[in-house]
Amino acid sequence: MKLACEGCDAVLEEETTEVLLAAMMAHGETVHSGLFEGKSPEAIQQMQQMMDAHVRQMIIDQN
């Protein structure tokens, strides 16, 4: 299963949805780490929850 990052040209491919979700979350936290700079721990946690929900919806929409 493949999923394209909406923030860059990266396309990730993994065997299962859970592995794809984990890979996409790791991608976001490393490649797009600038989004977290200067944010409070609470704001970062909220952003991560929103990103998780968004990536899950992208996976559902793709299937």
Plain-language structure description:
The protein has one domain. By secondary structure, the chain is mainly alpha-helical. Helix content is 59%, strand content 10%. The chain is built from 2 helices and 2 strands. A two-stranded antiparallel sheet has the order 1-2. It is globular and about 35 Å long.
Furnish the topology, listing elements before pairings.
Layout (H helix, E strand, L loop, with lengths): L1 E3 L6 E3 L3 H15 L9 H22 L1
Antiparallel strand pairs: 1-2
Helix pairs in contact: 1-2
Individual helix count = 2
How much of the sequence lies in strands comes to 5-15%
Derived structural class: mainly alpha
What's the N-to-C terminus distance? Answer: 9 Å
Task: Give the % helix.
Answer: 55-70%
Give start-end ranges of low-pLDDT stretches.
Answer: none
Mean pLDDT: 94
Total domain count: 1
User: Biggest sheet: strands, sense, closure?
Assistant: 2 strands, antiparallel
Radius of gyration: 12 Å
Brief account:
The chain has 63 residues and is mainly alpha-helical.
Note the main attributes of this structure:
2 helices; mainly alpha; two-stranded antiparallel sheet; 63 residues
